[in-house]
Design brief:
Strand content of chain A: 5-15%
Distance between the termini of chain B: 65 Å
Shape of chain B: globular
Structural class of chain A: alpha/beta
Radius of gyration of chain A: 21 Å
Number of strands of chain A: 8
Helix content of chain B: 40-55%
Order of helices and strands of chain B: EHEHHEEHHEEHHHHHEHHEHHEHEH
Strand order of the largest sheet of chain A: 2-1-3-4
Radius of gyration of chain B: 20 Å
CATH topology of the largest domain in chain A: Rossmann fold
Oligomer: heterodimer
Number of helices of chain B: 16
Largest sheet of chain A: 4 strands, parallel
Shape of chain A: globular
Structural class of chain B: alpha/beta
Strand content of chain B: 5-15%
């Protein structure tokens, strides 16, 4: 019996666990990302590799120690480094003496199917389809609730209530095994979140969009939970990058990419790999939608995001939006981030009030 | 007065300059080259570029800064892909856009920034050439003529490189037309005359890094002065590089890095007995290198090959690098003599 494991990325583990468990495999979810995971990863990864690779290595080592023997990992054909992670990680872990099988999912559908077959062995296609559908529904439901949480956190009646609701939701959805049940629980918690809403903490609505590298955007451990920090400051947060979005892009089913591309065109002519183009395009779109600010988050030395980071000041100058770029690495400190966010939000609030005064007076 | 086009002595210069120069000259344009990299250029680049970006791109920004008021156009192509199923580093894909953002649009002379995307074959080169020709107001036939002469020139350049010369040497030989015929016989003998200690070291790294004397702290020159024979990836036939790159791993998608990985695999596996050691040169913040170097490191460990990793940034001191190189070569000599 294969014991399957996979890297952490936000709430991905809920869907992945569902998928493989439904197929009848044993799943070993690596312990939640922690300082220990990062330390393990840092110790064995190349120094200048990007943060996600290091955390992945940490995840894998912790999972392999717990007895996993098959790693499922995303692949790619460039030009972002992520596409070659699996190869390097395999090398590093083999060098450490671990014995395992690594399966990389390539963004070519035929190859992916072949790879899935390789893991599944004799499991019939209908079953794969069924469990895939269940996992997909779960992840979409989680992302929808997450989206609402980001919107409502800035206007909760009592601090911490929405977080409580959200955590409870995540806990409960793990044990639901029917599409019907997923729908019900989603509606139930959607209502609960709406009920917890009250007035804006700052008196006015400040809207901030988060763009950047997908792993850092999605994984709260790497971005020091920036969404919650912003929410606590009374900010309405929006982002485009969710796991469901990533899966859609991975399978080339992304529909609104054209819009993003067109928005970015005056600043960046074409794709630069990863989500560099999305960062620029979404920043422009947020400006057009009347957002007050955009925060770009990226790991240190991330290539596509460096291109976006070079270009975002131009967006800041030409569009009506304020951009802040935050680079995260293994040394980023909590207090420093908090201070910067507070200053940024204060600036946005002041700007908005001034603007209101000018237009009304 | 002739139209002046500026070419930064950085990045793609080290791969395509001979061909580009021929092309623009035949179009009747004056080519202006930025000076050799120096402290002033690096300082300019550091000021203009984002902090975290890699050293060669900072140097590139500096070179563009040098050219600003000396030229009418700047040639700054947007590289996307140089062959089927491959890409270049993402930073290359955003070069002209990053330049526009860094230098205020008004200060920057018009950029000639064609998209170089050869994923569907090499034919787009002709279309790109005609696009450039149109911008520079050259006639159709003139562009055709210039293109073929440029390709011929570039091929000669490649040939000289593959016969065992470094890029700088090859450019010199190419400029000295008479030499071209003699290179075949001479080939590697050029250096072997002064080969004092029979050491043969493979230097792995991007051409724009190892051949830039300032960025690499004169690494190649230093080794040559000590009488060491040097091998680099661009002295090996491309098909051997490609073959060796895919032999052991999943196909790497960065064009230049695939060649470097191919060279590393070739040196480690096929030429194990001839090579005494490997020197890996990479720049601070280089994404692809951080991944490749780990693989090369692991493979060297398996095959018991000496490896020196040199990481360069804008603060690297010459003395420190040279001490490390000397220690490494001394070690290799001791190892060789048993």
């Amino acid at each position: 019996m294969k014991k399957i494991t996979f890297p952490h990325m936000g709430n991905l583990y809920i869907a992945a666990e569902t998928f493989f468990k439904e197929l009848g495999y044993e799943v070993i979810v690596p312990p939640k990302n922690s300082r220990k995971t990062l330390d393990l990863g840092m110790k064995y990864s190349p120094e200048f590799a990007c943060l996600p690779l290091k955390i992945n290595i940490g995840n894998f080592i912790q999972a392999l120690k717990k007895g996993a023997d098959t790693i499922v990992m995303g692949g790619g054909v460039g030009p972002c480094r992520f596409g070659y992670y699996c190869e390097v990680q395999k090398g590093i872990l083999n060098d450490l003496g671990y014995d395992f099988q690594m399966i990389s999912l390539e963004p070519e559908i035929l190859k992916t199917f072949n790879n899935i077959r390789q893991v599944m062995g004799g499991v019939p296609w209908t079953k794969i389809y069924g469990s895939g559908k269940l996992a997909w529904n779960k992840i979409v439901a989680i992302d929808e609730i997450h989206k609402q949480v980001l919107k409502s956190r800035g206007q909760e009646q009592k601090e911490g209530t929405i977080n409580e609701i959200y955590n409870k939701f995540l806990e409960r959805i793990q044990d639901i095994w029917s599409i019907r049940g997923i729908k019900d629980i989603k509606n139930e918690y959607y209502k609960l979140i709406k009920e917890a809403e009250g007035n804006y903490k700052r008196g006015i609505e400040i809207k901030v969009g988060i763009v950047g590298e997908i792993y850092v955007v999605i994984e709260p451990f790497t971005n020091l939970n920036i969404e919650q920090k912003l929410g606590d400051l009374g900010v309405t947060v929006e982002k485009e990058l969710y796991i469901s979005h990533w899966v859609r892009q991975f399978l080339k089913m992304d529909n609104n990419h054209k819009e993003v591309k067109e928005a970015a065109a005056p600043y960046l002519r074409g794709t630069v790999g990863g989500h560099g183009l999305d960062s620029v395009g979404n920043a422009v779109l947020y400006a057009k939608k009347g957002f007050d600010g955009v925060i770009q988050v990226a790991p240190f030395t991330c290539m596509p995001e460096i291109v976006a980071q070079s270009i975002l000041p131009e967006v800041n100058d030409n569009e009506d939006i304020t951009v802040l770029s935050l680079i995260f690495d293994e040394h980023t400190g909590e207090a420093g981030l908090k201070t910067r966010l507070e200053a940024f939000v204060d600036l946005l609030a002041r700007k908005k009030k001034l603007k209101g005064a000018v237009s009304s007076g | 007065m002739k139209t002046r086009i500026g070419i930064p002595r950085s990045l793609f210069y080290y791969y395509y300059y001979p061909g580009l120069k021929k092309f623009f000259q035949d179009l009747g344009v004056q080519v202006v080259l930025s000076p050799q990299t120096n402290r002033r250029i690096i300082d300019k680049g550091v000021k203009k570029a984002v902090d975290d970006i890699c050293l060669p791109i900072k140097a590139y920004f500096g070179h563009i800064g040098e050219l600003l008021d000396k030229v009418d156009y700047i040639f700054a192509p947007r590289f996307i892909s140089l062959g089927k199923k491959n890409f270049v580093c993402p930073k290359f894909m955003g070069l002209p856009d990053m330049l526009r953002a860094a230098f205020n649009n008004k200060n920057l002379p018009p950029l000639i920034d064609p998209d170089i995307d050869l994923r569907k074959g090499i034919f787009p080169i002709r279309r790109i050439a005609h696009l450039i020709g149109k911008r520079l107001k050259a006639g159709y036939l003139r562009v055709e003529w210039a293109l073929w002469r440029a390709i011929y020139r570039q091929k000669q350049f490649e040939k000289i490189k593959k016969s065992g010369h470094t890029t700088a040497e090859s450019m010199k030989i190419l400029d000295d037309q008479k030499n071209i015929k003699n290179t075949k016989n001479k080939s590697l003998d050029l250096e072997s005359g002064q080969n004092k200690n029979d050491l043969e070291i493979a230097v792995l790294g991007h051409s724009y890094l190892i051949y830039d004397d300032y960025l690499s702290m004169g690494l190649i020159k230093h080794l040559k002065d000590r009488g060491i024979k040097i091998l680099t990836h661009d002295m090996i036939q491309n098909n051997i590089l490609e073959m060796n790159a895919v032999k052991y791993n999943k196909k790497l998608f960065w064009y230049y890095n695939r060649h470097i990985l191919g060279a590393a695999n070739y040196f480690i596996n096929a030429k194990q007995d001839e090579i005494d050691g490997l020197i890996q040169v990479d720049a601070f913040g280089c994404g692809p290198d951080s991944i490749i170097n780990e693989l090369v490191k692991l493979r060297c460990k398996e095959n018991d090959i000496s490896l020196l990793n040199v990481n360069l940034d804008e603060h690297t001191g010459k003395a420190g690098i040279h001490t490390r190189l000397e220690a490494f070569t001394d070690l290799l000599i001791r190892r060789k003599s048993g």
